[in-house]
Amino acid sequence: MNTASRPGLRERKKQRTRDALLRAALELFTTKGYEQTTVDEIAEAVDVSQRTFFRYFAGKEEAAFAVQDMTEAHFVQALRERPPHEAPLEALRRAVLEGWDTIGEAIEEVVPIELYMRAFQMIESTPVLLAAYLRRSADVEGELARLIAAREGLDVDTDPRPRVAVAAFGGVMRVTGRQWGAGEDFSVEAIRELTAAYLDHLGPALAEKWRPEG
After folding, report:
1. How many Å apart are CA 181 and CA 125, to the nearest integer?
2. Which of 20, 55, 104, 153 is the 20 to 30 Å CA partner of 11?
3. Contact 115/27 with Cβ under 8 angstroms?
């Protein structure tokens, strides 16, 4: 027997267990309700112990945001890879749209894309999760501001522009999420299209007059 293969097999088994727990959690959260779902119910759905659940997740909140964390990490990496000649808001825009173009396959390896989109909507409509989402978003925006500052050769602590740009961008992302969640089309294509449309309005909304001359 090839003992060198054992760690790989163990890691794959652990990943399958984590993915199964995550799918079960999101299914229960989106059908029964986040606050009405217990850790015991999630573990029972996968036929494992509560202790096993806590090996993979610190709690329900971590499970609720696990795929969201993955998509945000994907977006941050896409931003890191944008060409340095792009202006900050253009780099952010292209990174997020590229992220929606390429994240689907990665999500499908963990949970069905339809389940992820339902979970995204569930976060928007669950007050305790929405509060957590806003808190976590502030952390991501801090990371993005530092990344933009590094791209532009600026000190994020003395030059306000990176934080201002990221705050405006983050505000558009939150509005987009709410509008998408209030609609009827919960596909990746729909949120990507809405994201592009709202980001296209960011510059004109900030820099141009809205009232027609007359």
Report:
1. 8
2. 104
3. yes
